[in-house]
Design a protein that fits this description.
Family: Belongs to the HTATSF1 family.
Distance between the termini: 107 Å
Strand order of the largest sheet: 19-18-15-20-21-22-23-26-24-25
Shape: elongated
GO molecular function, one term: GTP binding
Radius of gyration: 41 Å
Organism: Talaromyces islandicus
CATH architecture of one domain: 2-Layer Sandwich
CATH class of one domain: Alpha Beta
Number of helices: 28
Number of strands: 26
Pfam families: RRM_1 (PF00076), Tubulin (PF00091), Tubulin_C (PF03953)
GO cellular component, one term: U2-type spliceosomal complex
Structural class: alpha/beta
Helix content: 25-40%
């Protein structure tokens, strides 16, 4: 605190007149010697300035200004004037601490804190000894921007050499941001720098660099601020451009829309109102004309647009550009066509997509009416319709009447009546509504590919073998005829009262086959049906689909063909595989496409395990899963999605397993697979084969991905001793925690669903509970598909339970699963991370783009049907009734 004379007019701590001004006190110490008022006190080690009126000022070298000196006599005078009687002012008082606001970067004592060193480097070992700096940079730059040296601009990658100057296989890589360190460890640790070539000590080891000793060994160097700003600016510019390493290699527009061509003036609303059936003709004409330019994946007609808008989606962007050139300016129906590439911002109006389904239903009814008319004509005049005397047995819905033996209409009619009411005749069993006793067995050929597919496949065979009364060697020890009635759906009967699974086991390495053979049911399978390679796929989808798997696929197809030829009435194929690996995903989808070519009219069902980082740490799983979904959309009829993330959550949260193993996950999968296939293996009226399951569950061909659930859930080796009721089963069955897919149905709507109850259950109670649940959750079911909830009952319970329920749902919320995989795919593909592993096997980057686009389209389709309103459906049904009335 500074004191001043009360009579002084100057401000506190400042000279009286002209301070700091041109005529004031000198401020530069070099000028003090020339001023007679200034003297230097050796006692106080300060410069003293005395003014003409007797005031003294001291020069404060820290503040670099003159301050008024303290007058001790004046201080004592003021102390006496303000003294309080009875108070000893010489006594020390307790200090009162005043809380000060802590400045950022300073400690409690006001001292500047030293910033902790942020590590941005990784230490890499086991690099090939002949590797170059450019190779290391190309691999590690996919995880983040590598820092640069200030003087030379070269990447900060230090390759350690031995005494002779040879590379030791160790390097230090310094990144610009610390986040890149964890990403590099996650993506590159235990991987190879070069595809198929390991380092001197096996795969690379990537770890956080240790700089704890650096402060003791290195002398800090000073870097000019100009150089610092220059390198930071250069690195930030590179960071901004990092997403597109090669901008020229990427398409100019979004891969989702650069294949879509918008065509205007292709029709008029008057044409549609006059003849709604013209929609099909217009779309067919456009498809025929545009297919000359390239493959077309979709044609959409917007019948609410006065400009007559039609969009055509090509599989190749170049074909879309060519379509714009060819179609633009042409005349279609007397009107000039406008054509351009869509940018995704257009919002065209059309009626709901169910119009196509309604038209197909109308065509089907017309065919049915024509066939019945022909049948009636044949009854009256059998000689006029020779084609009906030899029915087409390839059509299951054709009426199998015996050939006419009389030309009299009355005799024929009497004979048909006798067939209807003859109890010994099996004529009525040919009709769809009499399904109690099937005429023939409908066999299924099962395939399991890859390590995951073989593990869950082995668990599935162990489960259903027990349900059908078979032991580990295939000998029947059951007690019920129901166990044998449909045994041939999955098993071939061999000599000695033994049954052999109709299964083909496939893998690209022998280890998995050996594990299956060594299992409790390893002797159950036919030895000739083990097909395996020696090299493995190494979690590379391209190896399984194009190279290693392609060399083995013909041998697998031969085994499948042999099994199919041994069937009396093959209904289809069932495949268990994983979408995240190399063999199950790559070779599994290759097998599906090959079998589809060989047996185009048979059903194809898959139990597909979707990967999750919680269970596996394979970094390329998003690539493999997206490429696989692209294939399943096109070649599968029914896909039961089994999500590893949901299985893991069930084990952790519901079953309270602290460390779930693959055996625990496979137990859950086998339980739900047993429930889904119950109506295929035991007598029932609902979903008695794969085709009827698809009819009940798939409203639109591409939307065939199902969520599955099971109740009650039990851990492996444990049984449920607490009695459960039908209301509890129904509640658990619809609970998202019991779903085998990590997507909440409350975020979408059910298109269709099916529930199967097993055990001694009252059908009336089941129907009442299902109606109750559906009424409470009506907002989660679409209104425009009637009777979209199916219920079935089987009296045979699973082993260890008195009753159970299995749920199969076609919900639009399944898009959450695809979005999760798609986001992971995009994060890697934008950086071209690990893409060389796939291109090295002959793949092209365009295949990745097409797979991503196809999965995005699938998500959009699910969202489209989720948002469809009941008013649109009612309008279409009304239009359909008007058409029928006019006809």
């Amino acid at each position: 605190m500074s004191l001043r004379n009360p009579d002084a007019s100057a401000a506190p701590d400042e000279p009286a007149s002209g301070a700091d001004g041109a005529g004031g006190f000198p401020q530069d110490p070099s000028e003090f010697d020339s001023d007679p008022r200034i003297s230097f006190s050796k006692l106080d080690n300060k410069f003293i300035l005395e003014t003409e009126d007797g005031q003294e000022f001291e020069y404060d070298s820290a503040l670099k200004r003159w301050v008024q000196a303290v007058d001790d006599a004046l201080l004592e005078q003021q102390r006496q004037a303000y003294k309080v009687e009875g108070v000893d002012e010489s006594e020390t008082t307790s200090s009162q601490l005043k809380k000060k606001r802590k400045k950022p970067g300073y400690d409690e004592n006001g001292q500047k804190q030293k910033k902790p060193r942020v590590n941005t480097a990784v230490y890499v070992t086991s690099i090939p000894l002949n590797a170059t700096l450019e190779e290391i940079q190309d691999v590690f730059c996919k995880c983040g921007v590598i820092a640069e040296e200030i003087d030379s601009g070269r990447p900060r990658i230090k390759m350690y050499m031995d005494d002779e100057g040879n590379f030791k296989g160790e390097a230090l890589v310094v990144y610009f941001r610390p986040e890149s360190v964890n990403l590099a460890i996650q993506m590159l640790d235990d991987s190879n720098l070069r595809l198929g070539e390991s380092g001197p000590n096996g795969p690379m080891k990537v770890q956080v660099a240790d700089f704890s000793f650096k402060s003791q060994q290195e002398v800090p160097t000073t870097i000019s601020q100009r150089d610092k700003k220059k390198i930071v600016q250069r690195t930030q510019n590179k960071l901004a451009d990092w997403d597109d390493d090669e901008p020229s290699a990427l398409p100019e527009t979004s891969s989702r829309w650069n294949k879509v061509v918008v065509l205007k003036h292709m029709f008029t609303l008057a044409e549609i109102d006059e003849d709604p059936a013209a929609i099909l003709d217009i779309k067919e004409d456009i498809r025929d004309e545009c297919s000359k330019l390239g493959e077309i994946t979709n044609v959409v007609l917007y019948d609410k647009e006065p400009d007559g808008v039609v969009t055509v989606r090509f599989s190749d962007p170049e074909a879309a550009k060519q379509c714009v050139k060819v179609m633009g300016g042409r005349f279609f129906g007397g009107t000039q066509v406008v054509a351009y590439i869509s940018d995704g911002s257009e919002k065209f109006k059309k009626t709901n997509e169910k119009r196509a389904a309604l038209e197909d239903m109308a065509e089907g009814r017309d065919e049915e009416e024509d066939r019945l008319d022909e049948f009636g004509s044949w009854l009256e005049n059998p000689g006029d319709s020779p084609a009906l005397s030899r029915p087409d047995r390839s059509r299951p819905d054709h009426l199998l009447l015996p050939p006419p033996v009389s030309s009299s209409p009355n005799d024929t009619f009497d004979r048909c009546l006798a067939l209807f009411f003859d109890p010994t005749s099996n004529y009525l069993s040919q009709f769809a509504f009499f399904e109690e006793t099937p005429v023939t067995m409908r066999e299924i050929v099962h395939l399991q590919t890859g390590q995951c597919g073989n593990q869950i496949g082995a668990a599935f065979w162990q489960t259903i073998s027990g349900e059908h009364g078979l032991d580990g060697s295939g000998v029947y020890n059951g007690t019920s005829d129901l166990q044998l009635e449909r045994m041939n759906v999955y098993f071939n009967e061999a000599s000695g009262n033994k049954y052999v699974p109709r299964a083909v086991l496939v893998d690209l390495e022998p280890g998995t086959m050996d594990a299956v053979r060594a299992g409790p049911f390893g002797q159950l399978f036919r030895p000739d049906n083990f097909v395996f390679g020696q090299s493995g796929a190494g979690n590379n989808w391209a190896k399984g689909h194009y190279t290693e798997g392609a060399e083995l696929v013909d041998q697998v197809v031969d085994v499948v063909r042999r099994e199919a030829e041994g069937c009396d009435c093959l209904q289809g194929f069932q495949i268990t595989h994983s979408l995240g690996g190399g063999t199950g995903a790559g070779m599994g989808t290759l097998l599906i496409s090959k079998i589809r070519e060989e047996f185009p009219d048979r059903m194809m069902a898959t139990f597909s395990v979707v990967p999750s980082p919680k269970v596996s740490d394979t970094v390329v799983e998003p690539y493999n899963a997206t490429l696989s979904v692209h294939q399943l959309v096109e070649h599968s009829d029914e896909t039961f999605c089994i999500d590893n993330e949901a299985l893991y959550d069930i084990c952790m949260r519901t079953l309270k397993l602290s460390q779930p193993s693959y055996g625990d996950l496979n137990h859950l999968v086998s339980a739900v697979m047993s429930g889904v296939t119950t109506c295929l293996r035991f007598p029932g009226q609902l979903n008695s084969d794969l085709r009827k399951l698809a009819v009940n569950m798939v409203p639109f061909p591409r939307l065939h991905f199902f969520m599955v659930g099971f109740a009650p859930l039990t851990s492996r080796g444990a049984y449920s001793f607490r009695a459960v009721t039908v209301p509890e089963l129904t509640q658990q069955m619809y609970d998202p925690k019991n779903m085998m897919a990590a997507s909440d149905f409350r975020n979408g709507r059910y298109l269709t669903c099916s529930a199967l109850f097993r055990g001694k259950v009252s059908m009336k109670e089941v129907e009442d509970q299902m109606r109750n649940v559906q009424s409470k959750n009506s907002s989660y079911f679409v209104e425009w598909i009637p009777n979209n909830v199916q219920t079935a009952l089987c009296s045979i319970p699973p082993r260890g339970l008195k009753m159970s329920s299995t749920f199969v749902g076609n919900s639009t919320s399944i898009q959450e699963l695809f979005k999760r995989v798609g986001d992971q795919f995009t994060a890697m593909f934008r950086r071209k991370a690990f893409l060389h592993w796939y291109t090295g096997e002959g793949m092209d980057e365009m295949e990745f783009t097409e797979a991503e686009s196809n999965m995005n389209d699938l998500v959009s389709e699910y969202q489209q049907y989720q948002d469809a309103s009941i008013s649109e459906g009612e309008e279409e049904y009304a239009e359909e009734e008007v058409l029928e009335a006019e006809e």
